Structure formats: C-alpha cells, structure tokens
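Just wondering, does anyone understand these tokens?
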Amino acid sequence: MRIRICTNPESGMRCEGPTSDLKPCSNLRACPVDGLWSEWSPWSTCTVSCSGIKRRIRVCNNPAPSSGGQSCLGSPEEIAPCNNDNCPVNGMWSPWAPWTLCPLTCGLGVVSRSRHCNNPPPVSGGTPCPGHGYEEGSCGFPMDYCKYVPKPPESIMPGRLIQ
C-alpha cells in the first residue's frame, strides 16, 4: 500500500486522484494459523452392559492449522469407563484359618479349619464361592500304637500345645 499527501493546498487547487493505492504483493506468504480443537462429540454408547468403555472425539479444524501454523495440542480422543454400577462380582474365598489343635496325644482326634466367602463376597448376582468353607481331618495315633509313644512328663498336659 502506498499513500500520498496533497502538498499544494495554498494554491486552492485540489489534488487529483486517490490519496492511497493498494496493490497485492505476489511474493508475500500468508501468516501461519495455529489449529484449534472443535467441540467434543457426544459420548459413544457403552461397549458392554457391565464394566465397559465409552469414547468421544474432537477434530483439529476450528480452524485447521495452515501456512505452517501449529497443530492442536492434546489428544483427539477421550476414553472413560462406563456401566460399573451393580456389576455382578463372583465370591472368592478368604485364606483358610489354621487347623485347630489336636485334642488328644494318644488316640484319634478330629481337627478342623474354616474359611469365609468374603474376599470379596458375591454381589449383584455374582456366583457364590465354589467348594466348601469347612474341613475336618484326623490327628493323633490309634490306641494300638499308643504303647509305643513315650508318655509325656507330668509338666506336660496331654492335648495341649507346648510353646
């Protein structure tokens, strides 16, 4: 663009023609335009009815980068969990409790141990723990073999744990 000023006003004559002249330059490059994101799309439907994922997208076109401008920063996609409420959880067993002490030192006795279906418990239609939560076993010696087992000294009570 060029501008001219009328420098002869005292003569009372008017200057002829426009005061400015605009001419496009063919050798100039356009200014860089950085890209900006569009609005997020609506969330997609959840992939499954329990513990699924949903997603939404956006596009770098508001405006799109041009003439060497920077592309949009960040991710064009967002993923989130969905339908996590009231999902069935299958029950799992807690560890077995220790075996009970054998009540006898001579003769056969019964020991037991238990566990609970609470690690986690079944929820919202989840399956119960498989198997059982109680076990029994035998302990001690048959009476016929007791004669071969040394008798405990008086300070030791039969059927008690020695610590």
The longest strand covers residues 107-114. The two ends are 104 Å apart (CA to CA). The mean pLDDT is 85. Residues 41 and 160 are 72 Å apart (CA to CA).
